[in-house]
Specification:
With 258 residues, this protein is an alpha/beta fold. The chain has two domains: 2-66, no CATH class; 76-256, Rossmann fold, CATH 3.40.50. It has helices spanning 2-16, 25-38, 44-53, 55-66, 76-93, 108-117, 135-143, 156-162, 174-177, 210-223, and strands at residues 99-102, 128-132, 145-147, 163-166, 169-172, 180-184, 196-201, 224-232, 246-250, 253-256. The longest helix is centred in the N-terminal third of the chain and has 18 residues, at 76-93. The N and C termini lie far apart (49 Å). The protein binds S-adenosylmethionine (SAM). S-adenosylmethionine binds at residues 66-70, 74, 103-105, 108-109, 132-134, 137, 186-188, 202-204, 233. Keywords: Methyltransferase, S-adenosyl-L-methionine, Transferase.
Length: 258
Amino acid sequence: MSGDYEQFTYQIKMKTGIDLALYKEAQMKRRLTSLYEKKGYGSFKEYFSAINRDHTLFNEFLDRITINVSEFYRNYKRWEVLEKTILPKVLKRTKRPRVWSAACSSGEEPYTLAMIMAKYLPLSEVKILATDIDENVHSRAKLGIYPERSLQEAPEDIKRKYFIKEGGFYKVADEIKRTVSFKTHNLLADPFGTSYDLIICRNVLIYFTEEAKELLYHKFAKSLNPEGILFVGSTEQIFNAGQYGFEVEDTFFYKKSL
Ligand SMILES: C[S@@+](CC[C@H](N)C(=O)[O-])C[C@H]1O[C@@H](n2cnc3c(N)ncnc32)[C@H](O)[C@@H]1O
C-alpha cells in the first residue's frame, strides 16, 4: 500500500511537477484515498491511470490536494494588527512597499490586503502580487464574486465600500481588483522573488512536512528586505524564528532581522 502511494507521488511529480512527498503524508493519503474510493477505484495505481486519461478527474484531484478554503479578513484580529501596527511601520520605511500574497487561493487574502492598504495609500499606488499553485483559483479570483459566508469577518463599512451585492453574492469593486496581479507559483518548486517588504503566507504551511517548512522559512527570509515582515496563519507560529533570521514582531508576524 505504501509502495502504491510512493509510485503515485512519483507519477504525479513527473506529470505535474507537484511533489506530494513534501505534504504531510498521512493527511494527504487520507484525502486522496477517500476521493478515489468514492470514484470507484481500488488503488493509487488504478487512480493514476484514470486521472491520466480524464481531464475532469485530474482537475478534481488538483482541487482535492489544494484545499482552497479562504475568507476575507480571515482571523480578523490579526488583520487589525496588520492595519494598526505593522503596516504603518512598513510604510515608514517605504511608500511603495513590495507585497506578495503567497498561496492566495481565490483572492480573498490579497483583496483584503488591498482594502487595508487603501487606508494609507491611493489605490493607484497599491500593487500586490498574488500567487497560488492552482491555476483554477485564478479565474475565480479574477471574477471576484463570492458567497456571503466568505465575508463573514469583513467589517460592514468595508462591505459597503468595496463590494456590490448581487443576489446572495458579493462582487469585489474593480478598483480593488486592479491592484492585484495573479500568477501561478509552486512554493515548493519555483524560485522566489526578492526585495519584498511584506509577505503573507497563511494556512498552507500546515500541510507541509517539517523539512519543507524549514526550507520555506529560509527562502522567505531571503526574499524579504531587512525589517520586511512575514505574516503567517493563526496556527502556524514559527518556533526558533531566530534560526531563520527572523524576530517576532507580533503574534504571527515575523520581522527579518537587520
Ligand atoms: C487553505 S488555502 C489558504 C488561502 C489563504 N492563504 C488563506 O489563508 O485564506 C491553501 C492554498 O494553498 C495553495 N497551495 C497548496 N500547495 C501549494 C504550493 N505548493 N504552492 C503554492 N500554493 C499552494 C492551495 O492551492 C490553496 O489555494
